[in-house]
Design brief:
heterodimer, A: alpha/beta, Beta Polymerase, domain 2, six-stranded mixed β-sheet, two-stranded parallel ribbon, 8 strands, globular, B: alpha/beta, Rossmann fold, two-stranded antiparallel ribbon, 8 helices, elongated, binds iron/sulfur cluster
């Protein structure tokens, strides 16, 4: 069985490495500040005892006040997992740093989040809609769509 | 004619009956000295054995409905019932339909087995337009008729008849193979009623 790492332990480590990057940690989840996402994600992937080399899924949730983007990470050599979350305040002109440089699998999934939730990922090589056609109005999985 | 009366019934005498029968037989025999001619007697014998007379519409429609080749257009779950229909238990090769073509140019009928999204719609329309005349469309399943469960969706075409003309509608989600076969039989009946005169005029 894949071991779900404790968010609190990882968060304590990350807080030392990148002060102020962690907002909270619960269960197997850490909530990271959007600005520190690139270095935290790179650290999680590259630290030898963590080596989260596999991004299982990337999706978003609409909580009305903010959007939360969820990254589910797994390490194949270490056989453990962690959930990373980032919040995006407001409803217009949303931006987050892309993680495609670390995990190529994020490519289509970031485009999906962009298409259905309207969060643009800076640094993505091909940031455009994936399901809906060019010129489609709105982002259908937002709660205020329709 | 001599008739005797017995307890209220009129009865012919035996002699009279036999006489009358004899007269009828003589008359029929006289009238039947020559055999009834065959309508194709003016053809020579070799030709007679190799010709079948019918109308052009009948033979054309028979040929068309007996080899309806479907084109591939199976975008969602209804496809599985279509696959079951094509496989050995239901076996659409009984209707000459087992040749499912990847090229629309060799196909006669489009069985629209599944939900169609607007993003896919231009491609389905193009496939339909590339099919050679005469061509028919069977709308299979609730999605194909009206969009089904996804009728209100932002991404689903509410019925194939928004983009292509449909000949037969088969309800169900998905329709069972029996229903699809019934739909195919309905299309056969529809084709049987067509005429090349109508085609030329349309
Ligand atoms: S009608 Fe039902 S089975 Fe057929 S494509 Fe639609 S949802 Fe799937």
């Amino acid at each position: 069985m894949t071991v779900a790492l404790s968010g609190k332990e990882i968060a304590a480590r990350l807080a030392k490495q990148f002060p102020g990057s962690i907002i909270e940690a619960t269960g197997n989840t850490i909530l990271v500040k959007a600005d520190s996402l690139p270095e935290v994600a790179a650290f999680l992937k590259n630290a030898p005892d963590l080596s989260f080399d596999y991004l299982v899924s990337l999706t978003a949730v609409d909580y009305w006040d903010y959007f939360e983007v969820v990254y589910r990470l797994t390490s194949i050599p270490r056989n453990h997992s962690l959930v990373l979350k980032v919040r995006c305040q407001g409803r217009a002109n949303l931006h987050l740093p892309s993680v495609t440089g670390l995990w190529r699998g994020a490519d289509f999934q970031e485009r999906e989040v962009y298409d259905l939730f309207g969060i643009a990922f800076d640094g993505h090589p091909n940031m455009k809609r994936i399901f809906m056609w060019e010129g489609f109005q709105g982002h259908p999985l937002r709660r205020d769509y329709l | 004619m001599e008739v005797t009366e017995k307890s209220g019934f009129y009865v012919y005498s035996d002699v009279e009956l036999d006489k009358n029968e004899g007269i009828q037989i003589e008359a029929l025999k006289t009238a039947s000295q020559n055999s009834i001619p065959d309508p194709d007697r003016w053809l020579d014998e070799e030709t007679q054995r190799n010709i079948l007379l019918t109308s052009l519409d009948a033979i054309l429609n028979w040929a068309r409905r007996s080899s309806l080749w479907p084109v591939v257009c199976f975008p969602a779950c209804c496809a599985f019932e279509l696959i079951a229909t094509a496989a050995s238990r239901f076996d659409i090769s009984r209707f000459g339909m087992e040749v499912i073509r990847a090229s629309p140019r060799q196909a006669d009928v489009m069985i629209t087995a599944g939900t169609l999204t607007w993003k896919m719609a231009p491609n389905v329309r193009r496939i339909y337009e590339q099919m050679a005349e005469p061509k028919w469309v069977i709308a299979m399943g609730a999605c194909a008729i009206s969009g089904g469960t996804f009728a209100q969706s932002y991404s689903v075409v509410p019925g194939y008849n928004r983009i292509i003309p449909v000949d037969v509608y088969i309800p169900g989600c998905p329709p069972r193979p029996e229903a699809l076969l019934h739909g195919i039989r309905m299309l056969h009946n529809k084709i049987a009623k067509q005429s090349i005169k109508q085609e030329a005029g349309k």
